[in-house]
Design goal:
Blueprint lengths: L4 H14 L5 H12 L4 H6 L7 H15 L4 H5 L1 E4 L2 E4 L12 H13 L7 E5 L5 H9 L4 E6 L2 H13 L6 E5 L10 E6 L14 H4 L15 H9 L4 E10 L5 H9 L3 E8 L5 E8 L1
Parallel strand pairs: 3-4, 3-6, 4-5, 6-7
Antiparallel strand pairs: 1-2, 7-9, 8-9
Length: about 280
């Protein structure tokens, strides 16, 4: 019996549904279209095209990985973020759509607050480079530094910057927070680890088993990284500079308290697509 695009799509969708995955149809379409290098239109308009045995085997192998709860975009090796296609690696957090609200908030601030057009930005814990590269893409006169403690993450971020044509404006820096940072920046951004250590074991396996622990574990109360940033960032932030942070859904008050204790003023709080608190923007007094 010939394996076609439609029959393979149905097979994958059915096995995902039987295993209890929440969006089997969507995930099946993503896997089939990406791994066969098809558009979604191809799947609809030409469903009866035969699939080679080699391609079918590749897709069934990808399905086995998904059934083991490896995220779809880890299987594909990339994730789209703020209009950019970013390669992923085991050392990088998978960027989520909700983080895009942090990028959008920073861009609004740049347009309305008179930030100099040819400024410098610092991304703390850059991972794949998602936040820094999204901002550099929208601010073509800016230069950015992506900082991470992981050499593997920095290799991925640098590769993404090069592929996207921003290699000349992006610098990778291996550092434990501000230890090796030099100079001052108009914008400092971060999506730091903010999950309480005790709850990490109970996270969904897609997060717990595949996102790097360094990017998740925020210490006993989830605030360790914020305290470090609050204490050290003022020495690296330009006058009238912006500090923008992603937070957990229930951390707005606690994180604000950490920064106001260091003479920062909260200038904006941003909700994500689900209506949860997601980003805070501060200015130093």
């Amino acid at each position: 019996m010939t394996t076609t695009r439609a029959s393979l799509l149905a097979e994958i969708r059915g096995r995902l549904a039987a295993a209890g995955f929440a969006e089997p149809a969507l995930e099946a379409r993503l896997l089939v279209s990406a791994l066969l290098e098809l558009t979604l239109t191809d799947l609809v308009v030409k469903p009866d095209v035969a699939v080679s045995a080699e391609d079918a085997e590749q897709l069934r192998a990808a399905l086995s990985r998904r059934l083991a709860h490896e995220p779809v975009h880890r299987i594909l090796g990339y994730r789209d973020f703020h209009g950019l296609r970013l390669a992923l690696s085991p050392e990088t957090l998978e960027p989520r759509p909700d983080t895009e609200v942090l990028v959008d908030a920073v861009l609004r601030h740049v347009k309305t607050a008179g930030v100099r057009p040819a400024g410098r930005l610092l991304d703390l814990g850059t991972g794949s480079g998602a936040i820094a590269l999204a901002l550099l893409n929208a601010l073509p006169e800016f230069h950015g530094t992506g900082l991470d403690i992981s050499a593997g993450a920095l290799e991925t971020a640098s590769r993404n910057a090069h592929v996207l044509g921003m290699g000349d404006r992006f610098k990778a820096l291996q550092s434990n927070w501000f230890d090796k940072v030099q100079g001052r920046f108009d914008i400092i951004v971060s999506n730091p680890p903010y999950i309480r250590s005790e709850v990490i074991g109970g996270l969904e396996p897609e997060v717990r088993d595949y996102d790097p622990l360094l990017a998740l574990d925020g210490g006993a109360d989830g605030l360790e990284a914020y305290r470090r940033i609050a204490c050290d960032s003022r020495d690296f932030l330009e006058d009238n500079g912006l500090l923008a942070l992603e937070i957990g859904y229930d951390q707005k008050q606690a994180v604000t308290k950490v920064f106001t204790a260091q003479d920062y003023t909260l200038i904006e709080s941003v909700s994500d697509y689900g209506g949860n608190d997601r980003a805070l923007l501060f200015r130093a007094e």
